[in-house]
Amino acid sequence: MSAASPEPITTEPAASEPRVTLRPLSFRGRVFKALALTPEPPVGDWLAGLDLALKRSPTLLRGRALILDLAELKPSLDDLQGLLDELRNRDIRVLGIEGTEEAGEGLPPILLQGRPGASIEVPSIPAEPEPLLVTSITVEGSIRSGQSIVNPTGDVTVMGHVSSGAEVLAGGSIHVYGALRGRAIAGAARNPRARIYCRKFEPELLGIDRLVRTAEDMGSALRGKAAQVWLDGGTMKLAKLD
């Protein structure tokens, strides 16, 4: 008796799995403008100067991209961490650092091949009143977001609008014949008699002499109306402009 031949084994072809096409990743370069802070030794004196600049112009660094240039300071890793903590205490956020090879966990990234750009000068306003040559300037047109108009010795008149994100700083009064949507600081030369006038009241921040109020503190009663702002006995007053 011959052994039975084994039955052939058949298999069904496996169902074809769906093919997934992976698209290649694309990395594109971007170039943005940033403001570089350059601390100098001794750091305590530099921080004191920074505090004075922020006191003179509270919105000087607000909303700006900031880079920390350490070429002059050359700090150790611990000193660098301490400096970053001091800046955070002043609500200053650093996006990157350059001029150093110190890198550590939690530190901003190191940037290379930065190119110099335009500088921003802090208005030099004397601590005590001094005789100043009073000058007034007029801006024909509007001030766009990101622009700053500074006249520490006199009035500023804007014939158009002050856009959101723009800033006007004057030693005297500020006159805006359009909408005031940005920041306006009058009386920066220690002039409590300075005023702010506008045809359409929608500011982000107002300041006269050393008093500052943000939009959250102004309410909505005057929004969209012609208004004026002045100081009365150390209190900032806001009223409809008839």
From TrEMBL:
Transmembrane region(s): none
Presence of the UniProt keyword Repeat in the record: no
Residues annotated as domain Septum formation inhibitor MinC C-terminal: 139-237
InterPro entries, A to Z: CAP/MinC_C, MinC, MinC_C_sf, Septum_form_inhib_MinC_C
UniProt keyword list: Cell cycle, Cell division, Septation
HAMAP family assigned: MinC (MF_00267)
The protein's assembly and partners: Interacts with MinD and FtsZ.
Family (UniProt): Belongs to the MinC family.
Protein name according to UniProt: Probable septum site-determining protein MinC
Species this protein is from: Methylobacterium komagatae
The organism's taxonomic lineage, starting at the top: Bacteria, Pseudomonadati, Pseudomonadota, Alphaproteobacteria, Hyphomicrobiales
Gene label: minC
